[in-house]
Every structure is written in C-alpha cells, then in structure tokens.
Amino acid sequence: MTSLFSDPVHGFISVPKDLILDLVQTPVVQRLRRVRQLGVGYLVFPGAEHSRFGHALGAMALMQDALQVLAEKGTPISHEERLAALAGALLHDVGHAPFSHTLETTLIRGFHHELMSRALIVDLDNDFDGRLGLTLEMFDGTYLRPFFHELIASQLDMDRLDYLRRDTFYTGVAEGVVGVDRLIKTLQVIPEAGGPESRLVVEAKGTYAAENYILARRLMYWQVYLHKTVLAGDHLLRAAFRRIRRRPPPFPPVEGSPALMFFLSRIVEATEIDDPVVRARYLALDDTDVLYSLKRWQHDPDPVLADLSRRFINRDFFRVTFLDEPPGPQRRAGWKASVVDWLLAKGLATPTDVEEVALYYLTFDDSRHRAYSTGSRSICILERDGSLRELSESGDTTAISAVATAVVKPYVCAPKEVGV
Amino acid sequence: MTSLFSDPVHGFISVPKDLILDLVQTPVVQRLRRVRQLGVGYLVFPGAEHSRFGHALGAMALMQDALQVLAEKGTPISHEERLAALAGALLHDVGHAPFSHTLETTLIRGFHHELMSRALIVDLDNDFDGRLGLTLEMFDGTYLRPFFHELIASQLDMDRLDYLRRDTFYTGVAEGVVGVDRLIKTLQVIPEAGGPESRLVVEAKGTYAAENYILARRLMYWQVYLHKTVLAGDHLLRAAFRRIRRRPPPFPPVEGSPALMFFLSRIVEATEIDDPVVRARYLALDDTDVLYSLKRWQHDPDPVLADLSRRFINRDFFRVTFLDEPPGPQRRAGWKASVVDWLLAKGLATPTDVEEVALYYLTFDDSRHRAYSTGSRSICILERDGSLRELSESGDTTAISAVATAVVKPYVCAPKEVGV
Amino acid sequence: MTSLFSDPVHGFISVPKDLILDLVQTPVVQRLRRVRQLGVGYLVFPGAEHSRFGHALGAMALMQDALQVLAEKGTPISHEERLAALAGALLHDVGHAPFSHTLETTLIRGFHHELMSRALIVDLDNDFDGRLGLTLEMFDGTYLRPFFHELIASQLDMDRLDYLRRDTFYTGVAEGVVGVDRLIKTLQVIPEAGGPESRLVVEAKGTYAAENYILARRLMYWQVYLHKTVLAGDHLLRAAFRRIRRRPPPFPPVEGSPALMFFLSRIVEATEIDDPVVRARYLALDDTDVLYSLKRWQHDPDPVLADLSRRFINRDFFRVTFLDEPPGPQRRAGWKASVVDWLLAKGLATPTDVEEVALYYLTFDDSRHRAYSTGSRSICILERDGSLRELSESGDTTAISAVATAVVKPYVCAPKEVGV
Amino acid sequence: MTSLFSDPVHGFISVPKDLILDLVQTPVVQRLRRVRQLGVGYLVFPGAEHSRFGHALGAMALMQDALQVLAEKGTPISHEERLAALAGALLHDVGHAPFSHTLETTLIRGFHHELMSRALIVDLDNDFDGRLGLTLEMFDGTYLRPFFHELIASQLDMDRLDYLRRDTFYTGVAEGVVGVDRLIKTLQVIPEAGGPESRLVVEAKGTYAAENYILARRLMYWQVYLHKTVLAGDHLLRAAFRRIRRRPPPFPPVEGSPALMFFLSRIVEATEIDDPVVRARYLALDDTDVLYSLKRWQHDPDPVLADLSRRFINRDFFRVTFLDEPPGPQRRAGWKASVVDWLLAKGLATPTDVEEVALYYLTFDDSRHRAYSTGSRSICILERDGSLRELSESGDTTAISAVATAVVKPYVCAPKEVGV
Prior knowledge:
The structure is a homotetramer.
Chain A: E1 2-7, E2 11-16, H1 20-24, H2 27-30, H3 52-72, H4 79-91, H5 104-107, E3 108-109, H6 113-127, H7 133-140, H8 147-152, H9 158-171, H10 180-185, E4 187-190, E5 199-203, H11 207-225, H12 228-245, H13 258-264, E6 268-269, H14 276-283, H15 287-297, H16 303-313, E7 319-322, H17 329-346, H18 354-361, E8 363-369, E9 380-382, E10 388-390, H19 398-402, E11 407-414
Parallel strand pairs in A: 3-6, 5-9
Antiparallel strand pairs in A: 1-2, 4-5, 7-11, 8-11, 9-10
Helix pairs in contact in A: 3-4, 3-9, 4-7, 9-11, 12-16, 15-16, 17-18
C-alpha cells in the first residue's frame, strides 16, 4: 500500500507505507520542510521558496521510475533493494544546514553535509532496528551492486535529476529544463545481470538528452545557483555570522536562537558530529532560527551586526561585480580605501576598528563550477554496437568537451553606495 | 523603465521603477516573503510553500493586464490611476498575520487583515509623501470611478484571480485551474467612458469562463483551503496559542519570540492597530516567529504546550472528521469522556485540570463557504444585446445558482489515538 | 518489451510489443492519423489540428494507468485481460468518419461510428487469429467482469478522460482542464474481488474531482465542441455534400475522390457496413479525401457547390446566431425572404431553383448537450462508510444535479452578408 | 481593435484588425493550415501534427513582443513599421511546399521556398494596394533600419524562436525548450536611436539564454528534424515522386491530384515562379494533394509506385542507418547486390529494370547541420561595458565555438527486410 503526495513537479508521488512513509514522518525528514532548497535563491527568484522536503520526495519518486525501467530491461531488483534505494534517495540530503550550502562551513569547520547525512542515517538505522543497513551500503558505495550507488550519488543521480527539474519549475528558468523522463527511460545496467561489475549507462539514443542535461545544469549554475545577487545574499549571511564570532568585548552577548548560538558561540569541528549532542543541536537548527535571529539582530547594539542583519532582512544586498581577472594589490587597496572612508562616514566604524569592520564590507572571492568531470565517475554511453563510450568522447557531443574544465569567475563584493 | 521579476506562474513580471519598485523594496512588502500564502497548507500539499510576496507581485501583474485590456476597449486610464491601481493590487494583503488566515483572530481580538492592510498603506502613504492617496480611495471604494475598487476588491478582483492560479500551480490541483487570461480579456467597463456610474462587467463570451472560475474557486476551498488536514493543522496552532494565554500559575513564563509574546501575553483589541507601537510589533511578526517559538515550546515544562508544539512541528496532527449533522449533547459527552480518559492515561492531565486540558484536545467546529454571492457585489455579464445580467441568472449558468448558498460542514477534531 | 511514443500530453507512452504494437501498425489504426479529432475545430482553435491517432494511443495509456491502480488495490487482472482492455481502448474509435462526428450521418444513413468500430475490430480479430475475442466481449459489455466495459465505454471511461485532457491541451482552453491523474487514482472496483457483480466506482476523496470532470466536460461542449463557428463549419461541409446528392441534371458528374464519391453518389444504409466492400471503401476515406474534393469543387461549374466549397477552404463561414427560443413561422419566413433576395442578387440562384438553393444557405437547428445522465450508467461514489451514492445525490455536488438535464440551444445559420 | 486567437503555445494572440487580420484571411495564408510544419515528423512524433498556420501566427505574436520590448528601451517604432514587421513575420513562410522542406527541390528544380514567399508577398502587395511595400523592404533587407530584417530573417529571428518553442511543445521534446521570453526581453537595438547603422543585439544578461537557444536548436535538429525515421519518411516521399517522373512506358498515366501532377508531369524550373500560372498551381497544392495521391497510387499498376506509396501511407518505412564514415565502393556494391536480390525475389523488379528500381530502394546520403555561423549574420552580445562581442567569442560560451562547425552524418537507407 502507498500514500499519495500531490507534487506540482512530478504529479502524484506514491510513498510506500512500508518503511518509506515512516521515514518521511520522522522529525529528521520533517525538518527538511524548514530548509530552503536554494538558500537565499528565493530573494532573487521569488518563486523559489521550496524546501528540501519536496526535493527529497522527488528524488525518491525518480528512483522509483529508474528502478522500474531497469527491471523492465532485465535487471532484477529485490524488494529489499528497492526499499533501500528509495530510502537512500529520500535521505541523501537530510544533513543539510540551514540555507542549504550557504552556511555549511560557517557553522561547522571542515564540514560537508554528506557527512552529516550519513551520521543521521546511522541514527535512523538504529531507530528502525537496522532496516537501513543496505541503504548505508548503497550510500557508501560498498554494496556489491554498484549501480545503486550511482543512482544515489554520481554525475547522473536522482538527486541531480530532481533538483534540476524542480529548480527550473520554481525559478521559472525555462533554459534549465531537462528531459528527465527521457534520460531515465534510457538508463541501463550492464552487464544486464547486474553483477558485481555492473554499472549504470545511458543508451545511445539518450546521448543528446545526456548532453543537454550537462549543459542545462551548467546554465543553472551560472544563471541561478551562482547568480551574482545570490552570491551577495550568501555574503551577508556569512558576514553576520563571522561578526558574531569575532565580536569585540564591549558588546553584550548576542540574543538569538539558542540552537544557532550553540554553533556560533564556539568553534565546532567536523569531527564533533560523532557526538549525539552536536547532532541533536544540529537537528534543532533550520532556516527559522537564522531568520528569527537576523530579525532580532537588526536591533543589536553592535551597529555592524545590526546593519548586516537589516540588509539581509530587507534584501538590501551588497553589489557583486564579476571581474575579468583576479584584482591586483593596487586595485584592492583602492577599493579598500573607498570602503574605509565610507564606513567612517557612515559611522559604522571608528578609526580603531575600521580595519576589522572592512572585512565584512569588502570581499574578494570567486565562483567556480565544472560542468562535467571526465574522471572515474563519468557518464557512459552504451553505443548501438554494444561498446561503451565516455560521454565527452562522442563526435555528437563536442559541446561537452568544451565545458569539461572548471570555470572560475573572480568577483568583488561591496556596498552599492561605495563605488567599487 | 521597469525591473523584471521571474515568476514561475506568470513568467516575467515587469515592475515599474516609478513608485511600484520602491514599494516592493519596503520592509512592509518584503515581510510578505516570510508569510506563507496558504498557512499550514504546505503541510498537506508539499509544493505549497509559497509566500504572500509572489502573490502580491502576481496580483499587480494581473492588474497591468486588466488595465491594458480596458484601455484598448476605450476606457481611458491616466498614468496616476494606473500607478494607484498597481499599488493597490500590490499592497492589498500587506496586513496579513503569520500563517495568513489561521491566526488572525487569535492574535488580535475582532481583527480582520484588511483593517491592518489599510493602516499600513496609510503609513506608507506618509513615507511616500502622499503618493498613495489615490490608492487609498480606490481601496476604500470612494474614488469616483468605482471599477478600480472592483479590480482591487470584489468577487472578480485581481487578488482572487492570482491566488487561484497561483495556488493551483503550487499545490498541483489541476481541477482548480482557471482561464485567467480569458477572463481578463473579456473584462469591460460600462458605460465605456468609465464615468462615475461605471462598473466592471464580463462580456457574454466570458460567461462560461466566469462560471468555471466560481466553480474552480469553490473546489479549491473544499479540496485545499478547507482540507481536513489543513483544518487539523490550524487547530493545533490555535490550541497552542490559547494554552499560552490560559496557562496555569506554576509554570514559568513562556520563552518565545518577543514579537509573538507581545500579542500572546495580553489581549490586543482590533482598535489598537491605530497605535503605531502595535503596528510596529505586528510588522516584526511573521511565520518565522511562530515556527521558532513552537520549536522551543516542544521543550516547555508544561506538557500540554510541549505536546501541542511537538505535534505541529513533526506534523503529527489530530484527526478531523466531517459529520453529516452537528453532534448532539450525548454524542459530544461520549467523545469528551474518551478524550478525558486518554489524557489521564497519557499523563497530559490530572483529574484537577483535565476539564481545562480537554478544551485543547477536542473541538467541535464547522467549515463554511459560499461559492458565490448574488448580492450587491455580484458578477455582471454584458449580454450581446447590450443588456446586463447577473451571473447566476443566465440559462447557461445553472450550476452557479446551485452553489450560491453557503455550505456548512460540521466536524470534530481530536487526537487520532482517541477513537472519535 | 515495449515501444516508446513521445506524446506531448501524457509524456512517454509505452506500447507493449505483444499484440498492441502490431495493432498500432495496422492500416486501420494508421488511418486515424488522417482523421482530425475535432473535425472542423481546428478552424476555430488553430492549435487543435490533432488526429484521432494520438487520442487512441492516449486512451490506451490511461487504461494502463487505471489497470495498475486497480491491481494495486487488490483487483486481480490477468495478462490476457490487460491486453484485451488495452486493445479495447486503442481501437474504440477506429470507426470514425472523416472530420469525426460532422459527417457521420451524411455519409451513411442511420450510422453511428461505434457500429463501424465494432465491425472493424471483428475484421482485425480475424486478421489476428481471434486474439481480440476478449476485447469484443469487453466492448459489447458481455464479459463477466463488467468494469472492463465501464473503462472502455461509460460516463467515466478512458476515452473521455483522454479526449478532455487532450482537447484542452491543443485548444488552449484552460477551463476544461481535468484532474485526470487524481480521478484515475481514486478508481476502485467493488466488490474488491472483481466478481461478476463488480462495478467501477470513485472513492469519496475523488468526489470533487468527479464533479469537476463533469462540469469541465460540459464547458468544453459549449465552449469548443459546439462553438458557434464550429457549427458554422459543420454546416458548410454538410451543405456541400447534400448539394452533390441533389445536384440538378445539367451539371456533369462531380469530380472528387473516388472513395468519397462512392458514398455521395448513392445512399448507403447503416446495415451495409456488414458488406466488406463498403468497409474497404470506408477505410479508404479520411479527411484528405474531403479536403482534396472541396478544393477541386471550388472550380465546379455548379456555382452553389463552388461557393460552398470555396467558403469552407478559405474559412469564409456562414454566421450562426443562437436564439432564445425556436423561431416562429413568421420570423423564419422573413429570414428566408432575405436569403432568397440575396441569392438572386448574388447570382447563386435563379427564380427557378432559388427554393432549392436556399436550403443550403439558411438552416434552423439546435445544439444540445446533457452534461450528466443519472440513469443506469451513472457515476458512483464509494463513501467512506462503504455505502454507494450516485454522483448527483451527494450534498457536495449540488452543481451536478443542476446540469443533469439536457440543454437545447436553437440557432439559425446563414451567410454573414444577409442580415439574419 | 484586435481579434483574439487561442494558441496553446503562446496563449491568446491578438491580431490587429488593421491589415493583419485581412492578411490572415487570405487563401494564401489559410493554405498554410494544410501544410504540416514538420513534414513527415508527425509519423515519428505523433503530437507533431501542427501546420504552418499556427507558426505564422506565433511568429507574428513574438514580433509584437519584440517590438514592444524595443520600444520600451527607446527605439522608436512607427505604426507603419509595426504593421510591416508583423506582416513580415506572418508571411515569411507562405511559400512553403507541401510537407514543408521535404519536397521543395523535388517539385521545382533549384527551388527555395523563400523565393516563393517573396513572390507571393508581391502578389498580396498588389491585392492590398501596395500596403506591403515596407514589408518587402524589410524582407529583402533593403529597409534603412536593418534590425527589422534581422527580426524577420537572421540567426535570432522570430521565425526560429517560434518554431523551436512550438515544435518542442508538439513533439514533447523537453530538451529543446528555449527561454523565448527571456531572449526577447534582452533584445536591444544599437545605437539606441535605431538609425541606419542600427543592429539587433542581445544584452549581456541574455548570454546564457542565447547560448542555450543555439544548443537547443542543434538538439532539435539531431533529435527531431533529422531523426532517422524522419529521413526515412522523406526518402519514401521523394522516391515515389522520382518514380513518377521516370516511369517507364507500358504504364498508363498516373492518376493523382491535378495540382500535383502539374509539377510531376514535367520539370518546373525555379525561374518559372515568375509565371502567375505556376504560382496559382503552387497555391492549389498542399499536403492534402500529396496524401490523396499516395493513397490512390497504392493501387497503381506499377508495383514500384504502389509499394512506395503503400509503405508511406501505412508508415512501413525503410531503415536509415547512420555510418561512421561514407561507405566505400565495395561496401556499396555489397549492399546493392543484396537489394537487387531482394527486389527480384519480391517481384518488384525484373532483371531488365532492376538497376533502375534499385535506385528507389537504396540510397546513400548524409544529413548535415551547422548549429551556429560565426559569419556576417552572427549573434552579437552587448557587454556591460558597452562593447560588442560575437556570441562565440565570450569565455562564458565555450560550448558555442564547439558547435560552430558543420556536422555531417552519412547514412544508408534501404528496406528493413534487406540486411543493410
């Protein structure tokens, strides 16, 4: 038996009542309703207010489709494997921090959300009497049928297929639309028996769809995920958090969400996620805490924190300007002088602390994205003659090789009022 | 000049830089990003996480379309009128409470959000040197060309057209889809000169579209807005708030968002919205405060508040059961006995306070909706022979007269574990 | 194994290679590519150029969905039953005449396309060594599990669900959109075992979707299928055909498609479809023959035939005017006098034949539609308490009872140039 | 005043009653309803049954959008220019042959449909008292404001934007979706005054949208327009026509549509389109004539013509196989031997004529497409610093340079039954 969820992206999603619905109802998964999928993206694309909860359901729904396609093509999939793979798709992102990627490293030093996802799946495995053991093997890539790992975590996994489809839906960015159905219909496991050497491939007739998928994802990165106003919003959030950590003595302790202050009042290392207390605090933390705290900090006695918070809440972001090349020391010094003057004139800093304060108001950084990696986890095309070809090596996909190197775009970020 | 917003529902929305963009950027309008359009609806329709901000933009966009259609049909509209009407559509909902309709009367006694919207538009009018005077006239219905008021607030206003279109988009409820474009294309003002007696009518060729709009809206009420799980979620929120107001002595003061506690620690009357302090507190309040507070209250020493809060956060709602008729005293007494037994057994109440506690765990209520009102603000069809006919009076719209009376559905709400 | 068809309405449609794909490839089914789904509808809704072929595939695809839903709910469906039902959905409309309903009775006296569909399925059954025997039983309603017949031919069959969805897609009439997925998900067979007494019902949670489906279908009738310009186009086609049958002596035989002339040069009775020669001629006939012939007839020496043909080809239709009541003899006589004068003035008739010619240029008729029949094949709702309720009898569906009577709209049809 | 057309792709299209609606109602434009946009494409993508009529309306609708965007950005556009440009978009394709591109050169030697379009616009200009003079200048590129020509015919014209959007809609090929709205919103004319040196450019923020448009169009070519089954269908049509031209003596004259036989019974040269008789015959010709004739030819005494026709009508196509390199003489000879044997065995040829007949049953050809031309009519990006950059020269569009060379794919086409 299944339970139906009405999803605007995929239509009705059937959630098996066996195990999967129980997982959906855990606080760990329900928390994803309070973590925005695109972080500050909703402040640039007003429709993109969707949370990671819908994405988790969607990735699971696509996993159902993929497994059905593979089964019809002769790859046997047992009931246990099916549930394990569905659980893997559902849970792969439970470790995300508030505002998704924005705050990951700001909250926990050396953190990556996949580590937390894994730790939380282990906790759930305990709660569910070891029923997630196979999911963990698939997640880790240690299960003897590696294509399950590829469906959960690879360059062509259900996570990516769902988020591209979903994010184009909510942002309205038509250019990112991907033929998810076609791609899934062309998946195959070779050798067909699905033995230990098995891997996931795309049939030749899916070549253009696969190419399009890579190019659409690249476009979404530059057009949405790394949109300069999104970068500006990210910057404000991180600046406010850094300010709290380095806040000078005269100011009283910051008042904010206790769950958030747990992570801001001291330095938490990635290794500490082994500590159940840290995990519990982390689970108590979501976008709500961040927004609630920023709203309060607008009235903090520290003018820098108040200014940064107010700017975020009222969407009065700094300006991000992309540069043709990394700025040299002289250019940087010029900008800094302007920022310093402006801070002093605005009363946001005094000659004593302006050096420190300028750190929050002027940033050099770069955004980088590699559209496709030709390495070990590349996408394989199964040619009509039975041979395998790495996606970028086909004569039909010259556009892929052209985007297989990382692109780096340096930028400077400062208040609009300063002429940077 | 205009600024473009990418809206997944209407495509690109052009926001005039003159006045309207400035209004969009005020904290009053930006706050709408933190108020969910469908209140707890997102806990039933996972895609419906959209806020009132997109709706405000959308209503403004439809107003642009409507004014253009009317102008092309010979109704002159001046630049000032256009800006005033766009501002009216943009601002009509700024007074909404957190979780939209759910909490209105719980926070302020005798409140209706339109009162607050008006008060906030007056504040904005002050901030913008009186540039919203005409908007206020249109909002109030005192402007000499009454069709502007009808476009802002009537049974066929841009507000309703946008929210139906938008809510069907995000919930994925195909049955609610309305031909918004067609309806707007068939609008007309008569007499064409748009004089003082002018009113908004639908041309005969839009009769079926208008009928469909009424029926689709009715369906959205019963299928979405008054969905029984939505009612159950609303109940939990209101129960938690009532509990705080009536919390017995031994417990320490509740810790929650100060902006929220301002409204829960005492009784605020609707008349107090004239007080700028109350308005400022209200503006500081949004969904964030409610969710943040509920998360904290999960750990409150009061087991009732903790239980209600935990249930909301983890979406462990009570069950709502619709009844064929209002339950008689005997039936009510039986249910109450079951709830009392259950509360005592669960340790949520003692014999001393179980009467009080049962108030939060057992509710009789009804949901009611009238799909169409034939009264003074009814929808008028302009027949091909130039005569006017009220929508429900046409032989083509027998379905309308069938739904023009209010439907009332009594229900009982109690924990699933209790066999009610 | 299946073959995939890319359908813009339902996405990828999987066609089983066993039997069903072979049926798709027969000339009988391929002919449907040359029969427009909406007859002359494409001359009013320019996107509605779709043929019955896509609809046949779509009805089959929805049958797949419905059978899967029923199977998951415990109604066992054997492989043979499944193929038979899919074939039934695919083939249910193979008997359609060119321009679908427009020409049915004009070509064959007393004809109904279902008779021809059945005869052609019998032919296919012979070609396929009796593999369509079960399909014929389902089609006829003689199979011991009657719900299969209901899925193929009832007020809630896959035919209707597909054509509503499809016709709204191609016409762009948003008001007709129906929640096909939701409806199919709420189907059930009771008693669950699917025994001889079994019937198809809609679960209570589908009540509003079922109501919406009836209302949307009604809207599509008045807004699209019986659109007054569609009626005007139908009229021209039939008038040209009648003229050929009654063409006076001096004119030479009409040159047109031989397949079409077979049916126009004499009167074919519905009983003659038992004759294989008649069926072969019928199969040779499609929209192509009609359009080709009309194009030639534009240059026919008979000015009446030439005028009617030219008007159709260039979309220079007569005007249809709906009337509040059937016109009395005096009104009719007045119109006729105008038409007669106009025909004489235009040189389309002489005093000798103007009585005859006026028959093609002035028509009184009515369009009629009953949105829902409460009779024996009504739609049944399975209430939550296990009882059955006919759709129009629920308190939630007052709109249905309001549209359950036939609506009749009289109209007059004449050239625009005549002031009728 | 305007007239509304309901288009499933763009929604309601407003057609100005001044000039443009009159043009729509001419037989020249109405004929486009009988010419399929994708030729035989509907036999591969069943939804793609749309005609050039909807495309002509759509291109005109996008021209309206583009002109409004340009006007808002300060490029003055007079009423006459607007009408002329709308007419240009509407009429640009009126010269298309039946089945669009498939038959162009088969019907008229050395033909290109743009020549015929121009000749027909000249005819219309005569009918409309010279009101299309400006349209002809824009069409020819001789008008002093060259951006109008670019909007009508260039690598970024309204024709291409509409057909990509439209063909993805009807084929259901999601990968081809293009952000048409975004692209049009980023168009600009520089210098802004729109003087003689003016040209159409894309603003920097449209760079990725422009890149995506090129890549999506390329994908549509390989995935749809040059799909191997489409090529196979094209082949059959052309083979049947060639057979008629070269039909050996014993056979009686072919019976088919006179309009079609006019072009098949002798060789018509491209220069003859100056002859009004040829143009009239051409206007009488559309898909109807081709399908009608093929249906008749199924029963032709010439077994070759009958076989080719039957295969087309019943969609029993040859197989097209793409080759890694052009086949050498030995490979060709081997295939030919197989085809010859098969033809003799099937009785489709005798030893006397098998050489000739084999020409229809075995073809070597190649399909070729250049996704983007960097030459004189390239797409220009207006960078944020005011400079111009050719699309392929930006660091952000490496994928473009990778596809700017022509790709050639050799293939062989022969009956499936022959093992080629």
